[in-house]
Input
Amino acid sequence: MPAQVVTVTSGKGGVGKTTAVANLAVALASNGSKVVCIDGDIGLRNLDVILGLENRIVYDIVDVIEGRCRLKQAMIKDKKLPNLYLIPAAQTRDKNAVSASDMNRLAKDLRSECDFVLIDSPAGIERGFKNAIAPADRVLVVTNPEISAVRDADRVIGILEAEDKGPGALIINRLNPAMVKRQEMLSADDVLDLLAVELIGIVPEDEGVLIGSNRGAPVAMDPKSRAGQAFRNIARRLKGEDVPFLDLESSGSLWERIQRLAGRR
Amino acid sequence: MNEMNSLLQIKGLRDGLLVSLDDAPWDVQLAALMSRVDAQPSFFQGARLALDVASQVLKVDDLVSLRDQLSERGISLWAVISESPTTEHTSQLLGLATRISKPRPEESRKFAVEDLGEETALFLDRTLRSGTRIEFGGHVVVLGDVNPGAEIVAECNVIIWGRLRGMVHAGSKGNRKSVICALDFSPMQLRIADVASAAMNPQTQSRPQIARINEFGTLQAENWSPG
Output
């Protein structure tokens, strides 16, 4: 079966696109799929750092596009997962080094090679973003439960609809259930109410995510991490499985949990 | 000259010019294009050009020479669109786009309809997301929400069967009798004719409301009751 090309984007920066790509890649690959990640953020590459592959880069995406190396030479194999590969971005170039048709060709070549191609889009709605969504079969829009990020997600979804890429599926990242309960943060329902698109995952706020990113070991590898579990669930949903959403409230005390189970609250 | 010009059609796009050629021999087409460019140098100077070459089969040499000739005249060749796979491949080799994004009806859409009367309305059966701008010379009716960051500018009334959270300007050509109504009325900003107002007092519960210019010349929203 040819690969599914999935682009992760957001509009706003810093909401967790790259983290989401790294974690979904790890989750899919440890589940047996062959995954190739492409870092589309040319000039500001990060995905290699989060995956812990920075020191292995020899060739990058611009080298492939400009014909200085073969595709296979630019695919860096992960340290732990033998079926996870990264095509890193070029750090010394900018977004103009790549065009949408280059991305289409690259994705076409990769389709027969693997099960999933995950593309990490840069922030913004300019050329880099357009390049990243050009080959996508499916687009995941990452947002945080804060008004500015939701605004930008709305804009991005509007562009996706205009480009015939479908409305995309939504990942709500860094949700803090305690803050939602105190009505200090938008709830998942508030976000969905405005954006009115399919929800594919809610990732709780978790310090472990940052620690994992700094170590180059995404949390999706950690079986105990709740954020990791959320990403693993999204990966299964990408494969077409029907996975129930996590109960994010269960971080309360034991007594509260028992009460909830008993249907008292 | 006239006969040659009829070979090609030039159309303005959002991000450049689209020149469509027909199936006449390539050198004839090329000559026609260049004579057209040389006839109006100021119009073409600095333009981004997309070329629709229909089913012409073009080799690398053809396109390189075209690109050079255009760039000598200050025009950058941006895309070559073709039905021929060979040509498409050639233009990809040269790093040219082979597809131009479709004109976006959603964004900055202006509706040019002749002779609009009071009776004309534009009906939009969808939610307007951030970044969408609708301009229309009559009434606008939206069946859906108007999200924050979306804008509607209408010469007459604006009716929203949904939530209004963006910006609406009714009576944009000065019609102070225009009204704006929505089922859930929490606009970012409202304007009717030359009167503007920042967010109306926030709604605790969503009620259908209607905004108009009152006798004091300011904007006022009130509950929208039938009859």
About this structure: The longest helix of chain A spans residues 147-162.
